[in-house]
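Quick entry between incubations.
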Amino acid sequence: MNRISKPPQWPLRVMRFFVKEQYIEELEGDLEEIFHDDIERYTIHRARWRYSWQVLKLLRPMLLKNFNPQSVTPLPMFRNYFKTSFRSLVKNPLTAFINVFGLAVAIGICLLVYTFMEYDKRIDQFHVNKDEIFLATFFADREGEMLQYGFAPRPLGDLMKEDFQQIKHVCRLEDRSVVIKYEENVFHESIRYVDPTFLQMFTFPLKWGVPSSLNDLNSIILSETMSVKYFGDENPVGREMTVIFNDQVKKAFVVAGVANAFPKSRDLEFNFLVNFKNIEIADPSYDLNDWSEFSNATLVQLHHASDVTSIETQMAKYKTLQNDAQPDWQVASFKFEPLTTMHARAANIRDAIFHDYNLEGRIGMPIIALFMIMLACFNYINIAIVSASKRLKEIGVRKVIGANRMRVIVQFLTENVVVTFFALVVGFILCAFIFLPWFVQFTGWELELQYLDKNIWIFLLVLLLVTGMVSGIYPVLYISKFEAVKIFKGSLRFGRKNPLTKIFLCIQMVLACITITAAVVFVQNNDFQNDRSWGYQQDNMLFVSVPDKTAYDKMNAAITPYKDVERITGSRHHVGKDNAIAVLKTEMNQHVEVTQFVVDENYFETLKIPVVEGRNFRKNSENDKRALVVNELFVKNMNLPKPLGVTFGLDSVQYEIVGVVKDFHANDFFRAIEPTIFRLADENEFRYLSLRVAEGSEKEMYQALQTHWMKLYPEIPFQGGYQEDVMGSYFNSVDKSEQFNGVIAAIAIMLASLGLYGLVRLNVSGRTREFSIRKTLGANIKNIAWVIVNQYVVLTMIALVIGAPVSYLFTKAYLDMLFAYPMPMGISGSLIGLLLLVFVLLAVVSTQIKKVLKANPVEGLKVD
Amino acid sequence: MKKTKLGEFEELVLLVVGALGEEAYGVEIKRELETRLDETLSVGSIQSALKRLEEKGFLTSEFGEATQKRGGKRKRIYTITAYAHRTLAELKAIRADLWKSMPKLSHALKAI
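Done. Structure below.
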């Protein structure tokens, strides 16, 4: 009989599953016989098909297995299960608490992470036209690497609207900072110049006013926050606000609309909107037809999203126009980024109006959630296995009465799901009232639980079933295996011999080890980051932002007489506040992107940035107007063995390197130091005045600066501060992440030790009689302690040997991901982590030893 | 007679089992019925009838020989019980009685 003439297998499996066992042999035989008859009569294919068909026709009530053997309703049975579950929970309140609480915390964190991920996923997805909106971006070659930029040449938007039928709307966008004045309120604000199409393309409904008013050059539209800031709760439509573009140009605008509060999951937003044409009033030199200049963003809306590819292929003519006008920004190709995936891609697009602040959260948070739920599940598994010893008799009785293994499994899994459900309810409450408000308060992400969204309930249901099953399946399979007779004979010694139980306990300790190590290392890293040198001296330094040279001169004159002033410097940019991107052209005609600071000759000495090679700028030197000072990283990246004298093209002028300064942090420690150049500033370019003052006079001088400013410019608010504060937001975010990691670590340590505690406690109480006998026979504290500790020693050793390297690698990877300059990791973190874990273990075990020692052996022997 | 509900198909199956004697197992019963009735029957319909008849006490069964063609699975040979025999006889008598009255009835019908 060859293989092909065998009947198909799958119908057989179906039949074996559904049809009563006593009929199987006969039916299989009959079917096979018919099958062979069929082969002789029809093709093999037909025969097989007939065979399957016959099997399916076999599925009749008369022949099917009885899947519900009890004709009585199973309800009382389940009621009994609930009752026993509840009783066993109440009987061991501590174990129940550890289980429920541990799971609840883990579930709460999972829910928090889910809410965060959901929030992140929804960002900017509320715009009705989101599928048709694209941001114009382009690629440029930087030393062989294609970088994507999120801004576009100024004339691009206008021309594209004329050239392409497929484009429905174009919106150009410029961001500027201005001073806004309404009656006595004067603030520095950022304002968006947009085409009136902005409000048609994007879904920002207005609370008051009409969107079309943006066509009017004198209209201004406010966000809700800004409306409240200037006008309180009243309707400001029709009020007049003055926008001070700079100290020469100001213009009165009429409030024409106020937007509704923005949806919480958003990235694109605005404070103030005015018609795009106003940019020409604010900046008379602004030339819309200048291909060598860029605007902050150009957004297009198409009639059909699918047209984008055909448009992209026809962008070549703009590329030529652009590349002829601006040799430093050679565009390789244009690309239109869809709004739907903008947020996820934002990290790859440079200088776009869209941002992605959540990248680290998107990676880190699910890891944390997974960790927590794993820890809780392992706690549960270990405790469940041990606590089953107390319920052996119940299982025995059930089996004797007639429960088969399936029944016991169903019973315990149900019980498990019920416990998980309790935990879920508690976890939900924990998340909604503790975790989430805390998280929102310190991250500033406006997360909220979407009660109305069905996905969250599906997520909870899945979480319930998965957690319930995962944590329960092994204990249940294990418990249900026991034979009733052995249970009653008392010959069952379990738990300690089972290798899987040991593995679980080991995994639990490894997890605990990782968590504790991570917690220690994060705290260490935080200290490290706080103490890290910036590469220049931040203390005793002040700065003030000035609008122009006149203001600089006036302030300079006012402040110079103070004896506490050690040195004053003027600059276009300032470390920590402002810098520019410059594109250098090497002698090999390659383009290099660098950070640029335009400063005067006093800058390095004021900030105390050491010059390591060459010289500083010279005052009033015509030659030095073509000189560059660069940082060490630049020299290293460009591979210049003799940097002095090397020339670079910048804006079609040749510059020569005259000096090299030490690397310093122009940004926070999350970001790597960038190759940086300094150019000598013309006095007309000055926008910052910075000064180094005598030790201890910082506060006084700050007040002096402020007073002089108020006298000189009563209409413009003072913008200045301590140099130490420029990275305020950075320290804020380091503090945040420290706080977050700290709390998470504390919770994890608590979960881990709770789990261990529950385990040891159950183990000891399960051996009460043994210890009582030992005591009556004269065992002393040493013997008892050894007996208890003994069984954990080897396990702990193994766990530590595995846990230490794993936790080392894990925390290192995590740090490397977060920080550009992570703390160089030694073994001290792991070592402290290990010691802490051992300490926790010892503390847990010693409480139990104490309990055993205190207990009266007579009472212990009476225990059943 | 009241309590024994014997369906038309069940009656046929029962008769075939009786007729086949020692050869009465699933495939043979199916084959015989198909030739007699001149239609295709599914294994399921015959088997469920057989099981029902067995439950009602019309049939007994036991395992018979196994053959290579059956993949080494044993046949189940069905035998009709005395009770079934009696019931079938009763049914036959009732039918015969009824047939006797047929011609008169058809004359009457014609007359109308």
